[in-house]
Amino acid sequence: MTNLTNYHSHCLYCDGRANMEDFIRFAISEGFTSYGISSHAPLPFSTAWTMEWDRMEDYLSEFARLKEKFADKIELAVGLEIDYLNEDSNPAFFRFQELPLDYRIGSVHMLYSPEGKIVDIDTPADTFRQLVDKHFGGDLDYVVHLYYKNLLRMVELGGFDIVGHADKMHYNASCYRPGLLDEPWYDTFVRSYFTAIAERGYIVEVNTKSYYELGTFYPNERYFSFLKELGVRVQVNSDAHYPERINNGRAEALAALKKAGFETVVEWHHGRWEDMRIGSVSFV
Ligand SMILES: [Zn+2]
Ligand SMILES: [Zn+2]
């Protein structure tokens, strides 16, 4: 197996279910050549799923210890998955920029309701439906527009390397209103967002977290050939919260990328992002 890498990974510093070391040990046992840790970055308030600032030093020193310990077995990189919440809390925030990280993932998980309430929309589909009805008056178009508006603003502000699960809301929004992805306005909207990503040169991850459960990647496979046309560099990440899931959907994603015309994916080697040929993909 080739292209055994993953750079989107959560551990006990945020909402992952095992120690940082457990993920790295599992990656080594699976034959991974490089691996990245990306806990949820602190927000201006406490949540059950993000790291607190007072844990940052421990996070970085634990990573440094493991990097040295496993130096002859695997190349390790440390990052954070940073939310775009608003103009003050986003990947470009100086406190995130000051940190000695190898890379940063930019993501949107939360939106402000018209009443100013912060709503976590990265939920199961039935919860999403309830949230849209309760906080946004059932106006799905408003929610979809707001989600991509925030993502676009994050792309404009910069300060990160990888766009995290670029269109993740598409699954929940399509459950709310089947056929949404085929509505011309939605397609045009999402394509202009990917064009903005391409113009600024970000890496787009193919996030496989839900592939086995829901049968979709983020972004949806229907955009892969468009991303190729735009010249966007891609990588396959599992967004794993459990060590045994770090390899989930990777072979399927690589095969889908190949089918869309991609010949390379971006991997971390020699302390930098490198374009690596997609090798023979086998489903084991
Ligand atoms: Zn995320
Ligand atoms: Zn994540």
UniProtKB/TrEMBL annotation:
<keyword id="KW-0028">Amino-acid biosynthesis</keyword>
<dbReference type="Pfam" id="PF02811">
    <property type="entry name" value="PHP"/>
</dbReference>
<comment type="similarity">
    <text>Belongs to the PHP hydrolase family. HisK subfamily.</text>
</comment>
<comment type="pathway">
    <text>Amino-acid biosynthesis; L-histidine biosynthesis; L-histidine from 5-phospho-alpha-D-ribose 1-diphosphate: step 8/9.</text>
</comment>
<feature type="domain" description="PHP">
    <location>
        <begin position="7"/>
        <end position="208"/>
    </location>
</feature>
<dbReference type="InterPro" id="IPR016195">
    <property type="entry name" value="Pol/histidinol_Pase-like"/>
</dbReference>
<dbReference type="InterPro" id="IPR010140">
    <property type="entry name" value="Histidinol_P_phosphatase_HisJ"/>
</dbReference>
<dbReference type="InterPro" id="IPR004013">
    <property type="entry name" value="PHP_dom"/>
</dbReference>
<keyword id="KW-0368">Histidine biosynthesis</keyword>
<protein>
    <recommendedName>
        <fullName>Histidinol-phosphatase</fullName>
        <ecNumber>3.1.3.15</ecNumber>
    </recommendedName>
</protein>
<keyword id="KW-0378">Hydrolase</keyword>
